């Protein structure tokens, strides 16, 4: 296909954007926090709480708060020693409260090596201690993360009761005599709907750009919604297959492929003027890839065994609501007003697609470790 002069200039601009120096702060996809907290044991005599988190990130935050010189250590043993030294600093931003009585727990540190290339060592902190006499329910607060994290009560006989907390929020009071999930099934679904939505907005920049790439190819709502439907069906299939262990692929394959799908959709928007029939099948195929990416995130966050299906359903609904919000916002901001203008493609579709393609190509190279 022969490109006109305007498209050639747009592609030249894209190459220029790719050649720009890398910014100091790079927007990353999948920014849901990796911190997990579990109530291992809790009764009227003792408590045992487990925190699992990124060891390097936690150490950097603690060193900053403590005002000490940052260390460059990367070995698990050195990280553990450094974290133990800063134990009093860690205590400052953790709240273990029993009906108004705050307890300073004993800390036990363990650091395990990274499990994947480019990942960080994982710190496991056990917080233990005695429950005060005539204590009220436990209220937990963890201020070492700024993103949503899971709080799982392992005392539940039928599995694990999981709720999601923001980094600056207190947990609901946890009874010392709990024997069944405190949250209703509907409340659990609601939590996972919110989690799925926030995985798209504001934390899923790569998925947002893919959906915007779908939006840009057509001027009418029906073809766009058909593509979104194909994408939804596809990612729902692989999300369910992967999270149940029936079919999985390593993140080293899935994440670069997702990034490439973003670039491909955007480049096709540049070189193909009108929506072609093959686009629906292509979007469906890329949806299968994105479903594996969703599953990777959800697997890290965990699904309660006693409510696996409702939680999975809620997460998927939240993802879909996030995608529809992106489409709706794009229509209100651009489509409704300008889609019938003669200059819509040259001034909106082409520049926006070029920027999306640049981001997708950059992420592809980054996730393949071609660039650091």
Tell me what you see in this structure.
α6 (205-216) packs parallel to α8 (251-271). The protein is elongated, with a radius of gyration of 24 Å. The protein contains 11 helices and 9 strands. A 6-stranded mixed beta sheet has the order 5-6-2-1-8-9. A 3-stranded antiparallel beta sheet has the order 4-3-7. It has helices at 5-19, 55-66, 76-85, 87-92, 185-200, 205-216, 221-243, 251-271, 278-301, 308-338, 344-367, and strands at 36-42, 46-54, 94-98, 101-103, 106-112, 122-130, 138-142, 149-153, 161-165. It is of the alpha+beta class and 372 residues long. The two termini are 34 Å apart. It is 52% helix and 15% strand. The longest helix has 31 residues, at 308-338.
Radius of gyration: 24 Å
Strand fraction: 5-15%
Question: Which strand order spans the largest sheet, edge to edge or round the barrel?
Answer: 5-6-2-1-8-9
One letter per element, helices H and strands E, the order comes to: HEEHHHEEEEEEEHHHHHHH
Query: What quaternary form is this?
Result: single chain
Number of strands: 9
Tally the helices: what do you get? 11
General shape: elongated
Unreliable stretches covering 5 or more consecutive residues: 1-32, 179-183
Roughly what is the average pLDDT, rounded to an integer? 82
Helical fraction: 40-55%
Gap between N and C termini: 34 Å
Which structural category do the helix and sheet elements fall into?
alpha+beta
Largest sheet: 6 strands, mixed
